[in-house]
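Letters spell out the chain; the tokens describe the backbone. To illustrate:

===
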Amino acid sequence: MPFTADAIAAQQVQERLRALYQLIHEIEKKRTQCEQGIVTLQNYTQEDKGGQSSQKLKNLYKTAIAQTELEEEIIRKALQKITEIRNIKNERRIQSRISSNKESMRKGIWMKMLYSSAQTLPLYVGKIGEKPPPLCGAIPADPSYIAKVGDMVAALVIDSSEGENWIVAEVVSFNHSTNKYEIDDILKEQNQKGRHTLSKRRVIPLPLMRANPETDPQALFPQGTLVMALFPQTTCFYQALVNKPPATHMDEYELLFEDPNYTEGYSPPHSVVQRYVIACKQKNKQSGQSS
């Protein structure tokens, strides 16, 4: 009896979970070895200076560095397995959606999923000297980049009653000959906006990785930057001012949204996760369109 797509995907996930389980045990072993190596090094440096051998000290440092590098390598393998699991589940979700051509989830469930996916977005952990890549935190995509099917993006759509709005959308396809995306409003069942065909300049890929403020602060929007961000409990992006950037990799941006109802012109502070804070798109004064 042939396996169904769901069964194959479940098997692939289970295989990676088993590998991840083994890697986690390996990480713990390597961590213990690293700690022992550091303790040995510390004890030796605290001994009588006159009796120390410079060569032995060098060897202890080399051993400690090598053990740390091995631990790092295994941790990166574990992170890769987690990424593969995420990709398999996302691919299966896309295929299920294509085959059924229907979304039946309520807005509340979608909002929880949007927030959860942003919280669990992979954290970029670079090696010494490496710079964060495009789509990490505030770093935009390369001009030639094409978002993949199923990726979440910010899309500028036109609604007869609401005018132009930047919304969270999902990529359905990209036509290279016309340079246009087909995207789905994620709440199409609720608001009937459905599918849109948009030029590439009207679609902004959302970050694929979170930036760590403690190691890569340059990959975050600094205080005072005008950005576009997802207003809490909505699927629309609005202009906001960065009041406080994240201080740790677990923190969110503190933003002040533009709001004429307040004397200062800005709302009280709101917290927004990194994934839904993007560079502000200024409007072209001549055409009235976003550039």
The CA atoms of residues 40 and 60 lie 8 Å apart. Residues 284-291 have pLDDT under 50 and may be disordered. Helices lie at 5-45, 54-100, 107-119, 188-191.
